[in-house]
Amino acid sequence: MAQNQLPAAFIQSTEDLNDHDETTKLTLAYERLYELPTTIIERFCDHVQYLDISHNKITNLDGLVHFKLLTTLIADDNPITENCSFPPMPKLQLLWLNRCKIASLYPWVSKLKESCPNLQYLSLMGNPAAPSYFNGGTFYEYLQYRLFVISQFPSLLHLDDRKVTDDQREESQRLYKRPFLERIVKPGSKGMQLINGSLNWNSMHNKLSLFWNKEKVQRRNLLI
């Protein structure tokens, strides 16, 4: 499945979520913006719930702090990195950051959780930190990435182009419980790395292998 294609069920579910009146939507896509203009913030922040800033050159998202009602943010195709901080957005339910420049998950995902604790839909496809078949990632890198992200967001229903299953939720909690996670995980060039130690890696590898074999029985045509 191509990265820019999403399942029809996912598109429909997000359309239902984003069924706002036109007065609550603001689209700034393809405007060559480097940041959110102050005039735009002042005019729209009090009522906009759906904001599309995709296909720009934005790296600073501080202006979003003024959008208190925001539930949907589309920020695909911006040079956003793991050093980009999100302001507190407790109402945000959907966040798309496809094809950005996020190269490391840890501790970026933890910070994102603090800023957006109620996310239900998150898509990070096309980022270096989101390994998949399409960007040269191995299956184990993909599965490690997916379960780690799921472990951070208890309300998450959809990650990238797939629903979050009960089995994935359960396994993510078993694999990534703190403080164990903080002892074995450190920032890396490809999302995250396990700190050197054959015991930790072998244990993690075996758990992922068992989980993958279980997934294959239930869904033999899983694409990554």
Question: Can you describe this structure?
Answer:
- Helix content is 33%, strand content 11%.
- By secondary structure, the chain is an alpha/beta fold.
- A 7-stranded mixed β-sheet has the order 1-2-3-4-5-6-7, sandwiched between helices.
- Helix 4 packs across helix 5 (166-175).
- It starts with 7 loop residues before the first helix and ends in a 6-residue tail after the last helix.
Features:
224 residues; alpha/beta; 9 strands; 7 helices; seven-stranded mixed β-sheet; 33% helix
Strand content: 5-15%
Task: Report the principal-axis shape.
Answer: elongated
Estimate the mean pLDDT confidence.
81
Strand elements, count:
9
Largest sheet: 7 strands, mixed
How many angstroms separate the termini? 8 Å
Structure, briefly:
The protein has helices at residues 8-17, 38-44, 108-115, 139-152, 166-175, 180-184, 198-218, and strands at residues 25-27, 50-52, 72-74, 94-96, 121-123, 158-159, 162-163, 185-187, 192-194.
SSE topology:
Blueprint: H1 8-17, E1 25-27, H2 38-44, E2 50-52, E3 72-74, E4 94-96, H3 108-115, E5 121-123, H4 139-152, E6 158-159, E7 162-163, H5 166-175, H6 180-184, E8 185-187, E9 192-194, H7 198-218
Parallel strand pairs: 1-2, 2-3, 3-4, 4-5, 5-6
Antiparallel strand pairs: 6-7, 8-9
